[in-house]
Specification:
With about 575 residues, the protein is an alpha/beta fold. The chain folds into four domains: about 10-65; about 75-140, no CATH class; about 150-280, Beta-Lactamase (2-Layer Sandwich); about 285-445 and about 505-545, P-loop containing nucleotide triphosphate hydrolases (Rossmann fold). Helices cover about 40% and strands about 25% of the residues. The protein contains 23 helices and 18 strands. Strands 12-11-13-14-10-15-18 form a seven-stranded mixed beta sheet, with helices on both faces. Helix 15 links the parallel strand 13 (about 380-385) and strand 14 (about 405-410). Helix 2 packs across helix 3, helix 18 (about 460-465) crosses helix 19 and helix 20 runs antiparallel to helix 21 (about 530-535). The two termini are about 35 Å apart.
Amino acid sequence: MKYLAFTNQDIEKILGESGVVDEAKVAKAVASAKLENSSLADVAVNQGLVTNEELSRLVADALDMPFMSLAGKLPTKETLALIPELVARKKRVVPFRLDEKGLHVAMADPTDLETLNFIARREGMHAIAYATTDQDIDTVLELYGEGLNNLLEIKSEKSGKVAGSEDDSSIIQIVKKVIVEAYRNRASDIHIEPREESDSVIRFRIDGILHDVTLIPMELHAQIISRIKVMAKLRTDEHQTPQDGKISFKLEDDNSEMDLRVSIVPVTEGEKAVLRLLAERSRQFSLAGIGLSENNLKKIQEAYEKPYGMVLSTGPTGCGKTTTLYAILKLLNKRHVNIMTIEDPVEYDIDGVSQIQVNPKAKLTFASGLRSILRQDPNIILVGEIRDQETAGIAINLALTGHLVLSTLHTNDSATAIPRFIDLEVEPFLIASTVSVIIAQRLVRKIHDGCKVSEEFKAADIAKKIGWELTEKMFGVKKSNPDGTVRLYQGKGCEACQGTGFQGRIGIFEVMVMDDQMRQAISQNKDAGFLEELAKKSGMIGLLEDGLGKVNMGITTIDEILGATKL
């Protein structure tokens, strides 16, 4: 959210005077925003102090202008046409009503008077501005698109057509539209899958969940796959071997570039393509924005501010480990330090950072790449993943010899990272000497602010899911009062969130710090259970508790947390 007329100090004053947010929580959010050099508005929403709608209403009050919730007030196509789609998307302003008073428009940034005056001059009528939320703007912007189903209502190619015919332009437009629609729906992946029947299915992964989008005829499927191969510079005549590539795609909405990582594999019904979207907006990560509490943030900060040692991020595939490390790199990326990475694949290009892509065909592995990096006079090294004994040994030695090393490890929680290292034949005393902090994480879906509702739940029903000990600790209802209630939030589902009740994801974390007691226990080869208990006695908050804290703040639901933390 960007309110051009307001500084962080202004937002702090608005929150403080609102009476909606506790002063101590506002102070913590201010500290996080300063630490991350981020917008206080974004931090306040990410930390659950206020919802997007609540903050937008407060800003509207401060501006002495009306607020409009667009739920149930979607504009007609005639009204929508009064503002060009390019202007609407670029400036995030949408019309919703035309009457004798003029054109009523909702704006994500109600302080953008230049855009408001432009619309008034263009339409030759008075433009009346309303504040609204980003989610409501996104909902209306979706109405501009012609939609995939309309685009795909194309006659299947008949036999006898030759390459270079006018139908080729239709395939180009279909692929372009699929990518654009995935971007507009904030999808992380596009799946194009042939089926046993006479068609193929296109699916988008949104907030970790796959959604069927549309069906396409098999005649078009082969041509779409071929077009993707051309864009990714892959062999179009190869159909039996997996191929990987990358596409650079120009987004006309905001004139930015987006990279797509392409994987095509042969399956029994044909070829399946999966495209991972690496959009510019996904790079705007910050440690506070991904869900780290202030306490965990301080622990991690103390670790990465050391000139040597190792910061480990652990968890299953797709839990956001790389995003966390990139957020740390973003803070460390200064002109006076030499930062190098070895990754497979390189997720995002970072200005000022030398990034190496693993290439087994050229005998460039994590281990060989690390040896080469060592001769490049680095200060900070990111190792995409510690997979084998050789890589583990080199990474540990680098951390011992005055380098800061960031890396990931596939383990279920922070404590089990230690025995995993030992399995890779790293001596316990070396682990104790080099590892500074271990971060375990998961991703959970966030409740959609646009359709968030609260409901009273019986404490006994909550205890059935998480037990009475956690129910008492996290929600303040004792076992002696089983009829007590707890007010929790959930999304009822709306058009903007595809009826799921969720929009976006946030991390839940546990952060294990290597203090003197922990180092001694590791050197004595204590098991993971002992290490976990020791860390909790020293103040570590487990994944489940961190998640339940976000449930208490109205960010997510208990079922989401349990689904992410069950091992």
